[in-house]
Structure formats: structure tokens, C-alpha cells
Write a structure and sequence with these properties.
The protein has a five-stranded antiparallel sheet, with no helix packed on it. Strand 8 and strand 9 form a beta hairpin. About 4% of the residues have low confidence. It starts with a helix and ends with a strand. It has one helix and nine strands; from the N terminus they run αβββββββββ. By secondary structure, it is mainly beta. The chain has a domain of 95 residues: Immunoglobulin-like.
């Protein structure tokens, strides 16, 4: 009986020490990517999309998979704002300005809305819908 108890004790000690040895390390986890302009970052198949809002002004930036700026002019964008409680949507028009798109939306006193972007990339033949929660601030 002493041998069995000792064997169980050794087995538990080894299993606990190997579990603790890997704690805090995740070598296979993807690296966390910071939004270069301080906005909210989401990814498409081969493109990273960052939305920056300040008051009524909205800017959308595009990056490649290595976070290098990507021209916005080849992408087709349809944008809408959705107010959470009413679920009403309004179209937003964006205009290309260098490597970004600029637009504005008056949230009419709401403290939050959802920006819905339908982005089509003719280069990949792929389109996606991204949703960003925007909290207008000055």
C-alpha cells in the first residue's frame, strides 16, 4: 500500500510541475496587432481595416498583412450607420484621401452606433461585412 501511495504521489507531483512549467507562455498564439492610428482594427482576408472616429469625423485606413499602408482606391465600400435601439440605418458617404477614406456622421445625440462596412476587393474577388462600434467623442 505504501508503494502505491508513493507512486500516486510521484505521478501527481510530476504532472503538476509540468503544467506549471508552461504557464504564461503561448508560443503558438498570434501576435496582437496595434492599430497604428489609435482606432479600432479588424481584419479581412488579406487586408487590415482601421476606423478612427473623432466627433462626427470618420477615417478608414487600410493595411496589408504586414501592416504597411494599402491604397484604398481599388476597394469598393458601402457604409451604413445603425442606431442600436431603433435599428434604423443611414448611408454614409466616404471619399478617398490618400491612403484613407474620410466621411462624417452625425449620431444625433446617441452615445453609440454601429458602423457597418461592406468592403469588396476586386483583386481577390472577395467581399466582407465588418461592424465597428463607434462611440462619438470630441
Amino acid at each position: 500500500m505504501k508503494k502505491l501511495t508513493f507512486a500516486i504521489f510521484i505521478a501527481l507531483t510530476i504532472s503538476i510541475s509540468t503544467v506549471g512549467a508552461h504557464e504564461g507562455h503561448d508560443h503558438d498564439a498570434p501576435k496582437k496587432v496595434q492599430a497604428p492610428k489609435g482606432g479600432v482594427l479588424k481584419s479581412l482576408e488579406k487586408t487590415q481595416v482601421e476606423v478612427v472616429s473623432k466627433g462626427k469625423d470618420l477615417k478608414i485606413y487600410f493595411y496589408d498583412s504586414e501592416m504597411k499602408p494599402k491604397e484604398a482606391q481599388g476597394l469598393k465600400i458601402a457604409a451604413k450607420a445603425e442606431i442600436p435601439r431603433t435599428k434604423k440605418t443611414e448611408d454614409i458617404t466616404f471619399k478617398a484621401s490618400g491612403n484613407s477614406l474620410e466621411g462624417s456622421y452625425d449620431a444625433k445625440g446617441t452615445h453609440r452606433y454601429t458602423l457597418i462596412l461592406n468592403i469588396a476587393d476586386p483583386a481577390t474577388g472577395h467581399s466582407d461585412i465588418l461592424k465597428f462600434t463607434i462611440e462619438p467623442r470630441k
